[in-house]
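Technical note accompanying the year-one report. For the benefit of new consortium partners, we illustrate the data format agreed upon in the data management plan: each record pairs a sequence with a structure-token string. No post-processing was applied to the example shown here.
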Amino acid sequence: MKKNLILAGLTLMSILFTNNACAQENGENINKIGVSTSSILNTAIDYRIGGESFYGLAQIGFNYKSMDAPVISIGAGYSAFVSDKLSINSELAFMGYFYDNLNADMIDKGFSTNLLLEFPLVSGFRLMVGPNLSIIENNSGNALNTKSLLNPITTFNVKDNDVNMFIGFNIGISYQF
């Protein structure tokens, strides 16, 4: 499993850097750093890199209810510009909650998808807000996925692990440079 996570991370990072190189050639390189939080109580520092339309996403943070479980996410997004000031961003990120000093056997994993409205505030700062769908598989037995502002809309069992599905929100602020 650890090998699969490393391979997935390396694949995504190569896609991000290739996308960034193409964006630089076209003069549309975008870098954003920010902070976001979601209804499943994940708060993270976000880094978005890429072009005006397609970009990569990396996040590192914590879950408020389980401060001993760092959350690491990698993903990709697409921006559709509604006007020169407003865009709708669609993002998909794969998440890992690490316990026991990043021991690969103690990982709750899942994915999150966001549909965010993004608009400027002041001087390079942008606000992002919108609905969120998260699906988290509880491998570790720590039941992190039940510590949320919302109850899961459904829970099912896959290979003796509980899988919870949440519908909620995501809000964040970023600085574009």
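Partners are asked to follow this layout when depositing records. The chain has one domain: 2-176.
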